[in-house]
Write a structure and sequence with these properties.
48% of the residues lie in helices and 15% in strands. It is built from ten helices and seven strands. Strands 1-2-3-5-6-7-4 form a seven-stranded antiparallel beta sheet, sandwiched between helices. The longest helix is centred in the N-terminal third of the chain and has 102 residues. Bound molecules: dodecyl-COA. Dodecyl-COA (DCC) binds next to α9, β4 and β7. The site of dodecyl-COA has 18 residues, from α9, β4 and β7. It comes from Knipowitschia caucasica (Caucasian dwarf goby).
Length: 415
């Protein structure tokens, strides 16, 4: 029994972990050195044997922890890979987003350009239709009801022609009398000049929708105006009464007078002028639609100083002496400016006398200033002076005096 004990202890020592081996070694030392009782050895062995299962469970736990650690490491790797993938996808998405924004921007620009072009085309087509319709309507036989209807000639025409037929008088005076009777003079706007002072001439032709965009104001700048013309225009225009969207409106000494072509055709040519020809009657100075070709002018009125200033640029159709403005065209402009001035001063007038001294020829295309000043008013007579100078005022081109005689509406009717 004792002989087998060391052997048994030795076998256990070979199998047990190092910590237990040191315990066994100590118990063996005690056994050989101090000859401890055998029961102590047995107790020790028992203790050692009790530690075994504990160690086993520790080993199991250790194994589990190692596995968990491995799993966590694997998860970590997977997560790291996912992060890399996510970042990659994020970069790709960012690139795609910027590409999409770029495309969107490009599309928007293309869309805007397309829209602008389409708009331009629509405007041009509208203008073409308008021009074509105008041309057609200028030629229609206005005695035919359907033609009048198609061309927008209004009911006034029917009333007037009815009255004309009844009285066998289709003269201008008759037309005006009818209009007066119908009390339309006060209620309808004057389209031919825009002046409220002159309530005499009103349109008997009302244009349908497509014909009635705002009438062109010829006194506004256009592409043919020279820099000098523009400079002078800005000079006077900046001193004009100005209606703004703000509450305050600007007051100035000058008023720009708008200038429209005539729509009403009051020619009373009778047998000499057919209805169609009458329908083509135009205000002399505004009868060319091509900008810059003939009379380009704007008139400013100074009520306080009782004077008018006209900026005039003569176009190539007004040639008289080679390269210079025709004397008749200059006379026309003087008559127009002084006549307008006299109208504002005295109401309805006609030119009775016009005296002109041509001092220096006006180069074609140049800008000149016509200054119209009141000389005096005497009864029905309004005397006006006019001076035409170069744009800088250094050269006098023309000087004139004009006499306007006030007339009544009936005088005009009987003309
Ligand atoms: C919205 C608008 C913007 C308008 C914007 C556009 C502006 C364009 C302006 C263009 C204007 C034109 O071209 S008008 C078109 C051209 N003009 C014309 O066609 C006018 C034709 N002539 C006439 O209709 C007539 O002769 C009148 C109206 C001028 C005068 O006839 P009347 O009404 O019978 O009067 P009468 O007694 O003879 O004269 C009145 C006074 O004027 C004097 N008088 C008459 N004629 C003359 C004369 N040539 N020279 C000196 N004095 C004369 C008389 O001695 C008398 O003075 P006393 O004894 O009392 O002292």
């Amino acid at each position: 029994m004792t002989a087998s004990m060391p052997h048994a202890a030795g076998a256990a020592a070979a199998e047990d972990p190092p910590i237990l081996q040191s315990g066994l070694h100590r118990s063996r030392t005690v056994t050989h050195g101090h000859a401890e009782p055998e029961s102590e050895v047995a107790t020790m062995k028992k203790t050692v044997m009790g530690i075994g299962p504990m160690l086993q469970s520790l080993n199991v736990m250790n194994e589990e922890l190692r596995k968990r650690k491995d799993n966590l490491l694997r998860d970590k790797l997977v997560l790291e890979e996912s992060i890399v993938t996510c970042n990659k996808e994020k970069d790709e998405d960012t690139t795609k987003l910027s590409e999409a924004s770029e495309s969107l921007k490009k599309l928007k620009t293309e869309h805007d350009d397309g829209k602008a072009n389409a708009q331009k085309e629509i405007e041009s087509l509208k203008q073409q239709i308008l021009d074509r319709d105008k041309a057609i309507c200028a030629l229609v036989d206005t005695t035919k009801a359907e033609a009048r209807k198609l061309c927008g000639l209004v009911i006034w025409y029917r009333i007037i022609t009815h009255k004309c037929r009844k009285t066998r008088d289709c003269s201008l005076s008759s037309v005006l009398r009818v209009e007066q009777t119908l009390r339309i003079l006060k209620t309808r706007p004057s389209l031919h000049t825009g002046f409220q002072a002159d309530k005499l001439i009103h349109t008997t032709v009302r244009l349908p929708g497509i014909f009635s965009p705002r009438p062109r104001d010829f006194s506004l700048p256009n592409s043919s105006w020279s820099p000098k013309m523009m400079e002078l225009y800005d000079h006077y225009n900046s001193q004009c009464d100005l209606e703004t969207e703000d509450i305050e409106s600007q007051k100035g000494p000058w008023i720009r007078l708008p200038s429209y072509n005539r729509i009403l055709k009051y020619a009373k040519g009778g047998v000499y002028l057919s209805k169609i020809m009458q329908s083509k009657a135009r205000l002399f100075t505004r009868n060319v639609y091509q900008v810059g070709a003939s009379f380009e002018y704007v008139i400013f009125l100074n009520k306080e100083e009782k004077k008018c200033v006209c900026l005039f640029q003569a176009g190539h159709l007004l040639e008289g002496p080679p390269g210079h403005v025709h004397g008749g065209a200059i006379a026309t402009m003087i008559d127009t400016v002084t006549g307008t001035h006299a109208t504002f001063l005295s109401g309805l007038v006609v030119t009775a006398n016009l005296n002109i001294n041509y001092r220096n020829a006006i180069p074609l295309g140049s800008t000149v200033i016509l200054e119209s000043t009141l000389d005096h008013i005497e009864g029905r007579k309004t005397h006006i002076n006019c001076k035409v100078t170069s744009a800088d005022g250094s050269k006098v081109h023309t000087e004139a005096t004009a006499l306007f005689v006030s007339i009544s509406v009936s005088h005009l009717m009987g003309m």
